[in-house]
Amino acid sequence: MDTVLSHIVTKRLSAEKENIATEVLAFILDSNQSAKKGMMKLLKAITPTMPDLIFKTQMVEGSIRPDMWGYRGDKTRVYIENKFWAGLTENQPIAYLKQLSKCTQPSILLVVVPEVREQTVWQELNRRLIKEDVSTIKTETPPGLVHTAETSIGPILAITSWTKLLAFLELELADEPSVRSDLLQLKALCDAEDTDAFTPLSAEEISDQRTPKLLLQLSAAVDGSAKLGITEAILDTKGLMPQSSSERIGRYIKFNSTPNFVVWVGINFILWKKYGRTPLWVIFYSSELKKSPVAKLLLEEWSAKNGNFRHNNEIVIAIDLPTGEDKDQVIRSILDQFNNIIAVYNQSTINTELDEQVETIVLPEIDAPPEL
Protein backbone atom coordinates (compact mmCIF):
# COMPACT_ATOMS: atom_id res chain seq x y z
CA MET A 1 0.00 0.00 0.00
CA ASP A 2 1.40 3.37 -1.04
CA THR A 3 1.33 6.11 1.63
CA VAL A 4 2.30 9.77 1.75
CA LEU A 5 5.68 8.89 3.29
CA SER A 6 6.54 6.09 0.87
CA HIS A 7 5.35 8.17 -2.10
CA ILE A 8 7.44 11.24 -1.23
CA VAL A 9 10.55 9.27 -0.26
CA THR A 10 10.39 7.06 -3.35
CA LYS A 11 9.76 9.96 -5.71
CA ARG A 12 11.98 12.66 -4.27
CA LEU A 13 14.30 11.31 -1.59
CA SER A 14 15.28 7.85 -2.76
CA ALA A 15 18.95 8.38 -1.88
CA GLU A 16 17.96 8.98 1.75
CA LYS A 17 15.60 6.03 2.24
CA GLU A 18 17.65 4.27 4.90
CA ASN A 19 18.28 7.46 6.87
CA ILE A 20 14.61 8.43 6.71
CA ALA A 21 13.46 4.97 7.80
CA THR A 22 15.90 5.12 10.72
CA GLU A 23 14.69 8.56 11.81
CA VAL A 24 11.03 7.53 11.59
CA LEU A 25 11.72 4.42 13.68
CA ALA A 26 13.65 6.49 16.24
CA PHE A 27 10.80 9.03 16.40
CA ILE A 28 8.25 6.28 17.05
CA LEU A 29 10.37 4.74 19.80
CA ASP A 30 11.09 8.10 21.41
CA SER A 31 7.53 9.41 21.32
CA ASN A 32 5.61 6.30 22.38
CA GLN A 33 6.26 4.12 25.41
CA SER A 34 4.34 1.16 23.99
CA ALA A 35 6.53 1.08 20.87
CA LYS A 36 9.64 1.40 23.00
CA LYS A 37 8.35 -1.40 25.21
CA GLY A 38 7.99 -3.55 22.09
CA MET A 39 11.59 -2.86 21.05
CA MET A 40 12.82 -3.70 24.54
CA LYS A 41 10.83 -6.96 24.49
CA LEU A 42 12.67 -7.89 21.31
CA LEU A 43 16.10 -7.03 22.75
CA LYS A 44 15.37 -8.74 26.07
CA ALA A 45 14.32 -11.86 24.17
CA ILE A 46 17.91 -11.92 22.87
CA THR A 47 19.39 -11.38 26.31
CA PRO A 48 17.00 -11.14 29.29
CA THR A 49 19.37 -9.03 31.42
CA MET A 50 19.38 -6.12 28.95
CA PRO A 51 18.16 -3.04 30.89
CA ASP A 52 15.67 -0.53 29.48
CA LEU A 53 17.34 1.80 26.99
CA ILE A 54 16.88 5.11 25.27
CA PHE A 55 17.56 5.26 21.52
CA LYS A 56 19.47 7.92 19.61
CA THR A 57 20.61 8.45 16.03
CA GLN A 58 23.43 10.34 14.26
CA MET A 59 26.02 9.37 16.86
CA VAL A 60 29.67 8.71 16.00
CA GLU A 61 32.36 6.73 17.83
CA GLY A 62 35.78 6.91 16.18
CA SER A 63 35.39 5.59 12.63
CA ILE A 64 32.02 3.92 13.17
CA ARG A 65 28.56 5.40 12.81
CA PRO A 66 25.77 2.89 13.53
CA ASP A 67 22.31 4.06 12.52
CA MET A 68 20.82 3.79 16.02
CA TRP A 69 22.34 3.53 19.48
CA GLY A 70 20.73 2.08 22.59
CA TYR A 71 21.93 3.75 25.81
CA ARG A 72 21.59 2.99 29.49
CA GLY A 73 22.46 6.32 31.04
CA ASP A 74 25.60 7.34 29.15
CA LYS A 75 26.67 3.75 28.47
CA THR A 76 26.22 2.18 25.04
CA ARG A 77 24.63 -1.28 25.06
CA VAL A 78 23.11 -1.73 21.59
CA TYR A 79 23.84 -0.78 18.00
CA ILE A 80 21.07 -1.08 15.41
CA GLU A 81 22.18 -1.01 11.77
CA ASN A 82 19.32 -0.45 9.31
CA LYS A 83 19.76 -1.54 5.70
CA PHE A 84 17.66 -1.59 2.57
CA TRP A 85 19.90 -2.45 -0.38
CA ALA A 86 23.19 -0.86 0.65
CA GLY A 87 26.04 -3.29 1.23
CA LEU A 88 27.97 -3.72 4.44
CA THR A 89 30.71 -1.16 5.00
CA GLU A 90 34.30 -2.16 5.79
CA ASN A 91 33.58 -1.53 9.49
CA GLN A 92 30.60 -3.87 9.60
CA PRO A 93 30.35 -5.95 11.64
CA ILE A 94 33.89 -6.30 13.05
CA ALA A 95 34.58 -2.70 14.11
CA TYR A 96 31.06 -2.42 15.57
CA LEU A 97 31.46 -5.62 17.58
CA LYS A 98 34.92 -4.65 18.81
CA GLN A 99 33.60 -1.29 20.00
CA LEU A 100 30.66 -2.97 21.74
CA SER A 101 33.05 -5.42 23.38
CA LYS A 102 34.47 -2.47 25.34
CA CYS A 103 31.01 -1.69 26.76
CA THR A 104 29.15 -3.21 29.67
CA GLN A 105 27.93 -6.66 28.70
CA PRO A 106 25.67 -8.04 27.45
CA SER A 107 25.63 -5.92 24.33
CA ILE A 108 23.92 -6.42 20.96
CA LEU A 109 24.52 -5.56 17.33
CA LEU A 110 21.14 -5.87 15.58
CA VAL A 111 21.06 -5.68 11.78
CA VAL A 112 17.72 -4.92 10.08
CA VAL A 113 17.32 -5.71 6.38
CA PRO A 114 14.57 -6.37 3.80
CA GLU A 115 13.09 -9.84 4.16
CA VAL A 116 14.64 -11.04 0.90
CA ARG A 117 18.14 -10.19 2.22
CA GLU A 118 17.90 -11.98 5.58
CA GLN A 119 19.94 -15.05 4.63
CA THR A 120 22.46 -13.45 2.28
CA VAL A 121 23.39 -10.65 4.70
CA TRP A 122 23.67 -13.16 7.56
CA GLN A 123 26.00 -15.30 5.45
CA GLU A 124 28.14 -12.28 4.63
CA LEU A 125 28.27 -11.20 8.28
CA ASN A 126 29.46 -14.66 9.27
CA ARG A 127 31.98 -14.80 6.43
CA ARG A 128 33.53 -11.58 7.69
CA LEU A 129 33.63 -12.91 11.25
CA ILE A 130 35.42 -16.06 10.10
CA LYS A 131 37.88 -13.97 8.11
CA GLU A 132 38.77 -12.05 11.28
CA ASP A 133 38.96 -15.22 13.42
CA VAL A 134 35.87 -14.28 15.44
CA SER A 135 33.98 -17.44 16.31
CA THR A 136 30.25 -17.64 17.03
CA ILE A 137 27.83 -19.91 18.84
CA LYS A 138 24.39 -19.98 17.29
CA THR A 139 21.68 -19.41 19.91
CA GLU A 140 17.98 -20.09 19.94
CA THR A 141 16.30 -17.41 17.87
CA PRO A 142 13.39 -15.70 19.65
CA PRO A 143 10.22 -14.50 17.88
CA GLY A 144 10.71 -11.37 15.80
CA LEU A 145 14.26 -12.28 14.78
CA VAL A 146 15.85 -14.47 12.10
CA HIS A 147 19.25 -15.41 13.53
CA THR A 148 21.16 -14.72 16.75
CA ALA A 149 24.69 -15.75 17.73
CA GLU A 150 27.08 -15.10 20.58
CA THR A 151 30.50 -13.93 19.41
CA SER A 152 33.81 -14.91 20.96
CA ILE A 153 34.64 -11.26 21.64
CA GLY A 154 31.50 -10.65 23.72
CA PRO A 155 28.62 -8.92 21.91
CA ILE A 156 25.65 -10.80 20.48
CA LEU A 157 25.03 -10.51 16.74
CA ALA A 158 21.41 -10.66 15.56
CA ILE A 159 19.54 -10.07 12.34
CA THR A 160 15.90 -9.46 11.51
CA SER A 161 13.83 -7.98 8.72
CA TRP A 162 11.90 -4.75 8.64
CA THR A 163 8.74 -6.82 8.21
CA LYS A 164 9.35 -8.87 11.37
CA LEU A 165 10.54 -5.91 13.44
CA LEU A 166 7.58 -3.69 12.58
CA ALA A 167 5.09 -6.53 13.05
CA PHE A 168 6.59 -7.11 16.51
CA LEU A 169 6.18 -3.42 17.41
CA GLU A 170 2.67 -3.29 15.94
CA LEU A 171 1.47 -5.85 18.48
CA GLU A 172 2.16 -3.29 21.22
CA LEU A 173 0.20 -0.55 19.44
CA ALA A 174 -3.15 -2.26 18.94
CA ASP A 175 -4.94 0.29 21.15
CA GLU A 176 -3.03 3.34 19.89
CA PRO A 177 -4.30 4.13 16.38
CA SER A 178 -2.33 7.36 15.89
CA VAL A 179 1.04 5.77 16.60
CA ARG A 180 0.02 2.66 14.71
CA SER A 181 -0.63 4.93 11.73
CA ASP A 182 2.96 6.23 11.95
CA LEU A 183 4.21 2.66 12.05
CA LEU A 184 2.14 1.73 9.00
CA GLN A 185 3.67 4.68 7.12
CA LEU A 186 7.10 3.24 7.84
CA LYS A 187 5.91 -0.25 6.96
CA ALA A 188 4.71 0.94 3.54
CA LEU A 189 8.13 2.45 2.84
CA CYS A 190 9.86 -0.77 3.87
CA ASP A 191 7.45 -2.92 1.86
CA ALA A 192 8.24 -0.86 -1.23
CA GLU A 193 11.93 -1.70 -0.74
CA ASP A 194 11.15 -5.40 -0.35
CA THR A 195 9.83 -5.75 -3.91
CA ASP A 196 11.36 -5.83 -7.37
CA ALA A 197 8.97 -3.21 -8.67
CA PHE A 198 10.46 -0.42 -10.76
CA THR A 199 11.74 2.32 -8.48
CA PRO A 200 11.51 5.87 -9.84
CA LEU A 201 14.93 7.24 -10.67
CA SER A 202 16.38 10.19 -8.82
CA ALA A 203 18.42 12.99 -10.33
CA GLU A 204 21.31 12.04 -8.02
CA GLU A 205 21.33 8.43 -9.26
CA ILE A 206 21.19 9.42 -12.92
CA SER A 207 24.02 11.93 -12.66
CA ASP A 208 26.22 9.90 -10.30
CA GLN A 209 29.35 9.29 -12.38
CA ARG A 210 30.70 6.87 -9.80
CA THR A 211 28.38 4.18 -11.17
CA PRO A 212 29.82 4.05 -14.71
CA LYS A 213 33.31 4.49 -13.28
CA LEU A 214 32.82 1.44 -11.06
CA LEU A 215 31.48 -0.68 -13.94
CA LEU A 216 34.36 0.33 -16.19
CA GLN A 217 36.88 -0.50 -13.46
CA LEU A 218 35.28 -3.89 -12.89
CA SER A 219 35.29 -4.68 -16.61
CA ALA A 220 38.94 -3.62 -16.82
CA ALA A 221 39.77 -5.90 -13.89
CA VAL A 222 38.12 -8.89 -15.61
CA ASP A 223 39.96 -8.16 -18.86
CA GLY A 224 43.21 -7.64 -16.99
CA SER A 225 42.90 -10.94 -15.12
CA ALA A 226 42.17 -12.76 -18.40
CA LYS A 227 45.25 -11.26 -20.05
CA LEU A 228 47.48 -12.03 -17.07
CA GLY A 229 46.07 -15.55 -16.91
CA ILE A 230 46.96 -16.10 -20.56
CA THR A 231 50.48 -14.81 -19.90
CA GLU A 232 50.84 -17.23 -16.99
CA ALA A 233 49.35 -20.08 -19.06
CA ILE A 234 46.48 -20.81 -16.67
CA LEU A 235 43.78 -19.36 -18.94
CA ASP A 236 42.97 -19.31 -22.63
CA THR A 237 40.50 -17.23 -24.65
CA LYS A 238 41.28 -18.57 -28.13
CA GLY A 239 38.03 -18.92 -30.04
CA LEU A 240 36.05 -17.43 -27.15
CA MET A 241 34.36 -14.05 -27.21
CA PRO A 242 33.10 -11.46 -24.74
CA GLN A 243 29.42 -11.99 -23.95
CA SER A 244 27.04 -9.47 -22.44
CA SER A 245 23.30 -9.00 -22.00
CA SER A 246 20.93 -6.87 -19.94
CA GLU A 247 21.77 -9.10 -16.96
CA ARG A 248 25.54 -9.39 -17.25
CA ILE A 249 28.78 -8.05 -18.74
CA GLY A 250 31.71 -10.39 -19.18
CA ARG A 251 33.33 -13.03 -21.33
CA TYR A 252 33.96 -16.75 -21.80
CA ILE A 253 37.34 -18.11 -20.78
CA LYS A 254 38.92 -21.55 -20.61
CA PHE A 255 40.67 -22.74 -17.48
CA ASN A 256 43.76 -24.80 -18.29
CA SER A 257 43.03 -27.42 -15.65
CA THR A 258 42.83 -31.19 -15.97
CA PRO A 259 40.35 -31.54 -17.55
CA ASN A 260 40.15 -28.04 -18.98
CA PHE A 261 36.75 -26.34 -19.08
CA VAL A 262 35.01 -23.19 -20.28
CA VAL A 263 33.22 -20.78 -17.93
CA TRP A 264 31.66 -17.35 -18.12
CA VAL A 265 33.18 -14.68 -15.86
CA GLY A 266 32.19 -11.06 -15.32
CA ILE A 267 29.70 -8.67 -13.72
CA ASN A 268 26.37 -10.41 -13.12
CA PHE A 269 23.73 -7.90 -12.03
CA ILE A 270 21.20 -10.55 -10.98
CA LEU A 271 23.65 -12.35 -8.69
CA TRP A 272 25.08 -9.06 -7.42
CA LYS A 273 21.61 -7.91 -6.40
CA LYS A 274 20.51 -11.30 -5.04
CA TYR A 275 23.56 -12.09 -2.91
CA GLY A 276 25.24 -8.70 -2.51
CA ARG A 277 28.62 -10.24 -1.83
CA THR A 278 30.38 -9.16 -5.01
CA PRO A 279 29.66 -7.97 -8.57
CA LEU A 280 32.01 -10.55 -10.15
CA TRP A 281 30.97 -14.18 -10.67
CA VAL A 282 32.07 -17.35 -12.43
CA ILE A 283 29.27 -19.41 -14.00
CA PHE A 284 29.75 -23.11 -14.80
CA TYR A 285 27.84 -25.00 -17.51
CA SER A 286 26.47 -28.55 -17.45
CA SER A 287 28.10 -29.36 -20.80
CA GLU A 288 31.49 -28.54 -19.27
CA LEU A 289 30.83 -30.23 -15.93
CA LYS A 290 29.99 -33.47 -17.74
CA LYS A 291 33.64 -33.74 -18.71
CA SER A 292 34.40 -34.99 -15.20
CA PRO A 293 31.73 -36.08 -12.69
CA VAL A 294 34.47 -36.31 -10.05
CA ALA A 295 35.52 -32.72 -10.70
CA LYS A 296 31.86 -31.68 -10.43
CA LEU A 297 31.54 -33.33 -7.02
CA LEU A 298 34.71 -31.67 -5.77
CA LEU A 299 33.58 -28.31 -7.14
CA GLU A 300 30.20 -28.60 -5.41
CA GLU A 301 31.89 -29.53 -2.13
CA TRP A 302 34.31 -26.61 -2.42
CA SER A 303 31.49 -24.28 -3.47
CA ALA A 304 29.47 -25.22 -0.38
CA LYS A 305 32.33 -24.04 1.82
CA ASN A 306 32.57 -20.75 -0.06
CA GLY A 307 28.93 -19.70 -0.12
CA ASN A 308 27.06 -22.46 -1.99
CA PHE A 309 25.49 -20.05 -4.46
CA ARG A 310 23.07 -21.21 -7.14
CA HIS A 311 21.38 -19.55 -10.10
CA ASN A 312 18.99 -21.30 -12.48
CA ASN A 313 20.44 -24.65 -11.35
CA GLU A 314 23.92 -23.44 -12.32
CA ILE A 315 26.92 -23.62 -10.04
CA VAL A 316 28.22 -20.09 -9.58
CA ILE A 317 31.29 -18.95 -7.66
CA ALA A 318 31.66 -15.50 -6.10
CA ILE A 319 34.89 -13.65 -6.94
CA ASP A 320 35.70 -11.53 -3.91
CA LEU A 321 37.35 -8.19 -4.55
CA PRO A 322 39.93 -6.66 -2.21
CA THR A 323 39.14 -3.13 -1.06
CA GLY A 324 41.61 -0.28 -0.81
CA GLU A 325 43.99 -1.88 -3.31
CA ASP A 326 45.29 -0.68 -6.68
CA LYS A 327 44.38 -2.23 -10.03
CA ASP A 328 47.30 -4.67 -10.22
CA GLN A 329 46.52 -6.11 -6.81
CA VAL A 330 42.84 -6.50 -7.67
CA ILE A 331 43.75 -8.33 -10.89
CA ARG A 332 46.16 -10.58 -9.00
CA SER A 333 43.48 -11.36 -6.43
CA ILE A 334 41.02 -12.37 -9.17
CA LEU A 335 43.63 -14.58 -10.80
CA ASP A 336 44.48 -16.20 -7.46
CA GLN A 337 40.82 -17.13 -7.08
CA PHE A 338 40.82 -18.59 -10.60
CA ASN A 339 43.83 -20.65 -9.52
CA ASN A 340 41.87 -21.91 -6.51
CA ILE A 341 39.11 -23.16 -8.81
CA ILE A 342 41.64 -24.78 -11.14
CA ALA A 343 43.23 -26.53 -8.15
CA VAL A 344 39.85 -28.06 -7.30
CA TYR A 345 39.55 -29.45 -10.83
CA ASN A 346 43.11 -30.72 -10.80
CA GLN A 347 42.32 -32.66 -7.62
CA SER A 348 39.89 -34.77 -9.63
CA THR A 349 42.81 -36.47 -11.36
CA ILE A 350 44.45 -37.18 -8.00
CA ASN A 351 41.36 -38.43 -6.15
CA THR A 352 40.78 -41.32 -8.51
CA GLU A 353 39.13 -43.29 -5.72
CA LEU A 354 36.12 -41.03 -6.11
CA ASP A 355 35.50 -42.55 -9.52
CA GLU A 356 34.11 -45.64 -7.83
CA GLN A 357 31.64 -43.50 -5.87
CA VAL A 358 30.38 -41.66 -8.94
CA GLU A 359 28.15 -43.88 -11.02
CA THR A 360 25.67 -41.52 -12.62
CA ILE A 361 25.33 -37.79 -12.14
CA VAL A 362 22.28 -36.17 -13.69
CA LEU A 363 23.06 -32.59 -14.65
CA PRO A 364 20.29 -30.06 -15.35
CA GLU A 365 20.02 -28.84 -18.90
CA ILE A 366 21.10 -25.20 -18.94
CA ASP A 367 22.51 -22.81 -21.46
CA ALA A 368 25.92 -23.79 -22.75
CA PRO A 369 28.74 -21.53 -23.84
CA PRO A 370 29.08 -20.99 -27.59
CA GLU A 371 30.87 -23.69 -29.50
CA LEU A 372 34.57 -23.10 -29.94
Task: Describe the 3D structure.
The protein is α+β, with helices and mostly antiparallel strands and 372 residues long. The chain has 2 domains: 4-204, no CATH class; 210-356. It is built from 13 helices and 14 strands. It has helices at 4-12, 17-31, 33-46, 94-101, 118-131, 162-170, 177-193, 203-207, 210-231, 269-275, 286-289, 293-305, 327-350; strands at residues 54-57, 68-72, 75-82, 108-113, 136-138, 147-151, 156-161, 235-236, 242-244, 248-255, 261-268, 280-283, 309-311, 314-319. The strands form 2 sheets. The protein has a 7-stranded mixed beta sheet, sandwiched between helices. A hairpin with a 2-residue loop joins strand 2 (68-72) and strand 3. Helix 6 runs antiparallel to helix 7 and helix 12 (293-305) packs across helix 13 (327-350). It is elongated. The model is unreliable at 358-372 (pLDDT under 50).
Low-confidence stretches: 358-372
Strand content: 15-25%
Give the helix proportion (percent range).
40-55%
Widest sheet, order of strands: 1-2-3-4-7-6-5
What is the number of strand segments?
Answer: 14
Number of helices: 13
- What general outline do the C-alpha atoms trace? elongated
* Structural classification: alpha+beta
List SSEs in N-to-C order: HHHEEEHEHEEEHHHHEEEEHEHHEEH
Largest β sheet strand count, sense and barrel closure: 7 strands, mixed
